[in-house]
## 1
Amino acid sequence: MGSNSIVAISHSDNLSGSPTDLNEKSLNSVAKLTKKAIDKSCNFINLVKDKTVLLKPNLVRSTPPNIFATTDLRVIYSVAKMALDAGASKVIIGDKPGWKKSARSVFGELGVDKIANLLGVETCFFDEDQLLELDLPASKVFNKIFVPKTVMDSDVLINLPKVKTHIHTIVSLGIKNLHGIVMDNQRLINHRNDLAYKLVDILRVKKPSLTVSDCIWPMEGQGPLNGRNIKNFNVVVAGTDVVAVDAVTCLIMGIDPSEVDTIRIASAEGLGYGDPKKISIVGTKLTRVKRHFKRPCISAAGVYSNVLSMEAGVCQGCLSCVRHSLDRLAFEQKMQRVGQITVCSGKHSFEKPELLPAKNEVWLVGDCASETSSKSLIGKVHRVPGCPPHIYELYNSLHKEHFDS
Ligand code: SF4
């Protein structure tokens, strides 16, 4: 890459409303904040005028009303309106939510359709779009990738991640948000320790022209789905280099960008600047908004008093499934009702199964645990297959066993 990247931070002490308030005052105050960051980071009119602009927010799934895990609708509104005002020939909002979630239903549940109708812009359900099969010659984990035609046909891709901590990838920011251009058939593969390489491969498919990160009510702790929102943090971060935007956002979160695999790998491969020394930060001073975001913890060992989590040579895919699932049970206040359980993930020798508590139900999570399990395991044994299983697969199985009958 040539000269340094520019990343803009904008902050407001007083922002009107919450992410669900779509009244005029609330929309306008977020629009002002978002515009400030975008205008400081690039020449927006040059970028979008007469172009087909695709907005890619994080619409992973609808969540309980008190958890905001997706991009603030007001940020989507703001960027879409700015693009229309700047003369974009077409503006489209598109995404494919999480595994087995249909875009049509999630767009409706989250109210994205409402925003699109308000502005008269289009929506694209990536899972209903024509898919193009592309070769990825420089990739590390994919030979081929299937990508919605609308993504490849757009002149300008604007990436709108929600700022969150993430128990698998430390953070969920701009690079991670692009996982949403991959369909279910490629979502769970390479979702282990190699996930960062997979995400950088996806970044190679189509680099966003602009990334606008929603850090208005970001999430800390057990993100991306079970963390805690920091209310009224009121920050937007923008820049044309997604790697640099992610790096600066990490600094805001009190995280060294070099700890984040996607930033390190993308930077090393010349896809952007992850080194803060090579980034010019403009707008609100970093010191003004920087704070310590509570870190996520991926291990479930010792977390819940009724759960013995045996994690042996396990990679992040299975760990993520176990922790996500248990955190969700705890969030729904069902944890104690599953009784005493032992959850084994990874490759166990099971040489001394008698050491496992005899009264516990045993749950073998992931193909490694199943393949290495011993016939002499004590207690009732359940299997959750997959490499890795989906993050909520253990939750679904426990639910079925204990609550659905
Ligand atoms: S099954 Fe084994 S290899 Fe696959 S994600 Fe789990 S621990 Fe990793």
## 2
Amino acid sequence: MPDLVTHVIAGYGLQRGFRLTPWFLIGAILPDILTRPFTIVWPGSFWWTMPLHTPVGLTLFCAAIAFLHRPGIRASVFLNLGAGAFLHVVLDLFQAHLAGSYYLFFPFSWHSVEIDLIWPETSLYLLPLWAVIGLWLAVKHFRQRMKAEG
Ligand SMILES: [Zn+2]
């Protein structure tokens, strides 16, 4: 669906709720970080960057990042980063498009998929709600840390 703020708030809420590592939150924004800057600056790069916004491309990228870490935490990095990226892709599926959408089955199929419930600007209307929820989660987290530290 959404804009980057919505992805961050959803990722942060689940990361805190399920006590996941910060890699989960990074994964929640990873697909757009890997692709959007390039397609905005150079729209012709879409077909080069699009594989990094697909399950196969993200799995390979998450595995590459995990292998940059020591063996003891590779599985944790891969699973948390991958789960965050999975959340991102699932949220994106709800977004409607005028033409084309997400190529979930790349490189096996060019069939594009979307659930088609929300237009891109809808998540912007909901931004104040996400901001309040994000602020509430941050204050709750801060209070828990203060209480734990005495
Ligand atoms: Zn996205």
## 3
Amino acid sequence: MFTIYGRPNSSNVRKVLWLCAEIGQTDYKRLDYGRGFESCDTPEYAKLNPNKLVPTFVEGDLVIWESNAILRYLAAKYADETLYPTDLAKRAVVDQWMEWQTTTSNIGIRDLFFGLIVKDPSATGDDFLAKARTQATQAMTLLDAQLADTGAFVAGNDLTIADCALGIFVHRWFSLPVERADLPALAAYYDRLKTRQAFEDTVIAGGP
Ligand SMILES: N[C@@H](CCC(=O)N[C@@H](CS)C(=O)NCC(=O)O)C(=O)O
């Protein structure tokens, strides 16, 4: 039994909820923390997660923050090895795409989301949005090329936690009111993810 602190509309929380649903892990409690819900900006919450962000994962004495670290732990502990391969070469490719999600692919899509959906005053202006759209398009074009090459999923023919990390941002890209480049492999991938009930129930259900 573990606890996930985090609102169900957060992108980084949804990654974790999707993985739980995908592996049929229901023995957990989720607490509504984050923007619009219980505040993360309290001394109690900061003791769990000094970044004052969601998600935070607690299992007994173990506390993990950073959504991709939570994905790795859950997959290694509760899933079969397809989701997070034990073969080091295969695992490195999964890790590579997870790192790319955090450091690169996320930036433009996050800025577009804050500008167009959250309407954060710090994320407005034509120049800001144009730059964000360019960054997002570059990242999604790179992912489209990878998917055209690899098959059904980001790291090959099987779903892995790299898909859990990236799928929410692909969903967000297709949900944002922006002009999108024609990226057929990416569109087919999104359609493929949408056939999964676990993805529908967690990622899609959480909104854009
Ligand atoms: N790198 C962190 C980022 C966490 C993050 O930025 N979380 C956002 C939600 S997606 C957050 O906590 N926002 C403030 C809030 O909801 O109060 C992770 O992957 O867990």
## 4
Amino acid sequence: MPSSRLAASLLAAGVALLPLAGETRSALAAGFDHGTLTPRQDAILSGVLSETRQLVRESATPVSVFDLDATLFDAGGRHKQIMAEYARSHKDRFPGMLAKVLAWETDRLPYEVSETFDELGIQDPADRKDAKDFWYKRFFSNDYLHYDTPIAGAAAFVKALDRAGSVIVYLTGRNDAQLRSGTLRVLEANGFPVDPAKHALVMNPSKAMRDSAFKGSAAVRTQIEALGKVVALFDNEPGNVNELQRSFPDALTVFLDTNHSPKAPQVDAGIPWIKNFRWSWLTGPLAARPR
Ligand SMILES: [Mg+2]
């Protein structure tokens, strides 16, 4: 259980930090913007913003940390674009494929693109390998990142933290040498604050290091703690939130229930779940609340 002032205040307000029945279902059935805003999600996001403002009043430097893929961005658009290109370039072999791909809802796709191959009629092992190679070359390319779309409310929430005086850390398993330029370009194009004098993009320096090992490393902890007081960390991978919770026990680690790898562990108890970044200060009856 996180020991932060924020977690304590959420619990005192009656915000259960455990998933509720029905909220543990796969994101494939949930979508990233289809769930209505729950009071609990609202309390968690509003609480992060309130704690950020309180730290600024105390002359501390608040920090919030965000993963990118399936946390701030839905990478389904990238899958869809790449498989549409595959379908167009293989239309003689797979004549019905393009229509199926164009009908995809990007936030309902499985985590692994190969899980779509049966639906698309890609059955032969040689075809499956060819399609996976085609996909791989493009998915991890700066030229395709702009097909991602922000998760609902994400840009507004991160901008609100920026305006409140928070340092924003984008902590991603994307490879540094390969994807830094495109990542910065797409963050900026979607309205996320990227001023290098205030914020940081922390990327995996090694293709060999697992995402959770990188994010849970002492080097990452030291780098982030040097920036200020960590308020909250957001990630969609159970293995990552569990590591982050252990690395930053005084902060609030939040699990994004969007999409994650198929063999992931359970999310540790005490880590709250949210569906996206919609919160009522932006969109609801509390929008006019004084700041
Ligand atoms: Mg992710």
